[in-house]
Amino acid sequence: MQTIPGLRGECGMSDIAVEASTSRAGGAVGIFPALVLALAAYAGFPGEARAHTPHQCPQDFPDLPAISGHLAQGDIDSGRISFSNLFRHGREVFSANWNHCDGQGRPATTGTGAARVPDEPAFIRTSGPDANSCAGCHNVPRAGGAGDFVANVFVLAQAQDPVITSLDPAFSNERNTLGMFGAGAIEMLAREMTAELQQAAAQLGDGEHTLNAKGIPFEVTLSGGEVIASRGVDTDLVVKPFHQAGVVVSLREFTVNAFNHHHGMQPEERFDLNPANGFNVDHDGDGISGEMTIGDITAATVYQAALAVPGRVLPAAPQARREVAAGEALFEQVSCADCHIPALYLDNRQFVEPNPFNPAGTVSSGISYAFDLTREGEKPRLEHYGNQGAVVRAYTDLKRHNLCDEEIRVLCNEQLAQGRPEQDGRPGSEFFLTRKLWDVGNSAPYGHRGDLTTITEAILAHGGEARASRDAFVELSVDDQRSVIRFLRSLQVLPEGSPRTLIRP
Known about the structure:
Layout: H1 33-36, H2 73-77, H3 83-95, E1 153-154, E2 174-175, H4 183-202, E3 207-213, E4 216-223, E5 226-231, H5 251-263, H6 268-271, H7 294-305, E6 311-315, H8 318-333, E7 344-346, E8 350-353, E9 369-372, E10 383-385, E11 389-392, E12 400-401, H9 414-417, E13 422-423, E14 426-427, E15 432-433, H10 455-460, H11 467-475, H12 478-489, E16 491-492, E17 501-504
Parallel strand pairs: 6-17
Antiparallel strand pairs: 1-2, 3-4, 4-5, 6-16, 7-11, 8-9, 10-11, 12-15, 13-14
Helix pairs in contact: 3-7, 5-7, 8-12
């Protein structure tokens, strides 16, 4: 691997001209020392500031790795890497079609890193590796987005040894690809909500309580100063905004997991943080060591965090615009907005890496990078709110809910309907994180399996806590239902560089 030079100057992705214009504007390096002082002290990762030599295929194999170099985290921390170059490298990592020369494949390990019998097939559809590229699944309506049904993944099977023939939910839990647009804002909302919940709980005595974060209620039970039961969030009170069941803390954890699971690419921070190894361990037995540096993961994280936020596409015809507005009012009238909250507010508009709530195996301190979600990254970006904050129009409460009842079987898989106590490690009664609707207009299909082809089907598949809202929608006239759907279809991922609202014929 070789270190990417930290060029300063033109920031190719900071300010992207709208539509057909090709002009670009300069941007500043995305390092904010005042913010990162709050992070834990950096003891240093030996070797991370050094240059990395490129991976090589065997001498008798005349091919090349998918990317020509890897980032050293020390160069990012020192400010040698501009925001535009970090974003660019993250996009390259996200879009690369990884191959054997890069270390693709994990013949001797499962997707959790446990040992398995080596010499299994290079690609295994159910338990992985199952993809060459992140963008191979995240591509609707463009790179970084959601995925078609054909891109579904199996999120239990990566722990098996391996699952080759079975699609039984006991072995492989099929899930549709999530869209990553606006993900930086979502992660920062979850961090602020976590801090509010934990601070509130620390002030309370034993008993049942309702805690509020961003105005959203979470019920908890405390005993001996510890949270022993909770609804809508785990008992650690860490809001986990990623995956269908709300089980992943951050973009960084999401990325570290995905590279190992789906590509068989081994992040050093998950498998090789022993300084004595010199970042030179071939954990998965594929003949390649040092496959993904800490800097590579930072770049991929920042790239996803800096993807554009979704916006609105409104019709040019006045009558059609009135129908969209009427649908928005009806959306609130039938109480869909109680959970799909139209707007939440960040107190601080900086995206700061890393997330201090990251679990073991994912860097949670010791590195330092930040950028302003309203000033850097793809356009459209977040809107300012107050002196330091921003508005996040994501239509979610980042809370887990029970959407299952006896009348709803579409979203509740067979085992869950039969009373399976856990799903993806979460209680079966609170399986679904409230979906972010700000991209719903062009991110079909829907549902946790991607087997719902229309927004109407997705609405009708709500039960449990959402039963009353679902039934209120059903009781609307067909014209009013169409207005709700037209409103929802106006919430879209926009072309790169667009303003937040587009008017189209």
